[in-house]
Amino acid sequence: MTTAEKLYKTAKELPEPLVAEILDFAEFLRKKRVVGALADRKEMLIDLAGGLERSKTFSGDLVEIQQRMRDEWE
Predict the structure, then answer these.
(1) Average pLDDT for residues 9-22, to the nearest whole number?
(2) Residue (of 30, 10, 28) closest to 19 by Cα position
(3) pTM over 0.85
């Protein structure tokens, strides 16, 4: 019996809310696998860290930058 068959057999005996949790977890694992495969081909988010240190918009005093950003919303 394959693992998938064992899982199916076990899930059939569980109440519906628990089966829904199993499905959620299985979909999470599938998505995680796909995202992991894409991450291998693309740059990682950590590779983008520190990319604004030479930006005119985000250079200077941090409090002044926050104030300018707030002022744009008023």
Answers:
(1) 93
(2) 10
(3) no
